[in-house]
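Hi C.,

You asked whether I'd gotten around to modeling the 350-residue construct. I have! Everything is below, sequence then structure, no commentary in between.
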Amino acid sequence: MILLAVDWALVLEKTLFIGFIISISLVVAMYATYGERKIAAFIQDRLGPNRAGPFGLLQPLADGLKLFMKEEIIPTSSNKVLFILGPSLAMITAMLTSAVIPWGDKVELFGRTISLQIADVNIGILYVFGILSLGVYGIMIGAWASNNKFSLMGGLRAASQIISYELAMGISLIALLMITGSLSLGEMVKQQQEGLWNVIVQPLGFFIFLVCAFAECNRTPFDLAEAENELIGGYHAEFSSMKLGFYLFAEYINMFISSAVMATLYFGGYDIIPFYDESAWGFSTNIMALLGAAALFVKILFFIFLFMWVRWTIPRFRYDQLMNLGWKGLIPLSLFNMIVTAAVILFLKK
């Protein structure tokens, strides 16, 4: 019998870090609802939440308590097991993507060097795409289990939309992989620290990825799956209490993780200033790691603001416009970007 040696200290530090990332994701998702309402109020020249706590800062807690206290309703004609599984799966897949994102450089604590990344796998991008592909099952299962035609229509819209825009997103990333030569997110950040941020060498690829990220997160102008004026809420029309809360939280967590992925792939991740060697500042390893993590979160907050700004300024597409943009617009554009990138790489090698 072969006994495998287990580094329990490593298991403990990874467990604590996983708990920390989950907590941060939930807090960001909770206060993203507050930020969205405040940004919408500013754009529409009104105040927004301002009653619960100073400046309305306790409003997300009040909303969360309201969802917990609401009556739990499961339609009698629904598939009860799948009705519960749908929002649970949506929440789980939203959280799983964060496992391969490098949140910062290494820190030294208690004589150990701790990586601020849960798992630095060499196929990080493939992992992200695999989890993204599973995310649609949470929507489809919940929509089908509701036994409601509007929910089913919203689920079908979400599935076809995600399949359509994942193609363009994947092709845009192929061009990036040609340049970096790696599928590891950690390796991509290190390359950007030593050279240019990828957004400079792949501006068209970043634009395609950004548009597809809006579609993957079901955010306006791609929120056809839950269009209130057409489908009375779409795939989560029959859900109430925290089942509805899970779907809403999953959307905001997806927005947070998508922002982190974009910042990592195209904006240097935890790299603080482009074209500059931060080691010249002379700070300790831990201080530099904290500054890098703070820089990453600033980039993430910028992208979250962009998601919200677009929602309150651009109207929703019709469904035929949504499909035309995906199949006739973004996919040919991403193929063009990939071919041009390959040609440039071959030319530079000569």
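If it helps when you're writing up: Strands lie at 107-109, 112-114.

Thanks,
B.
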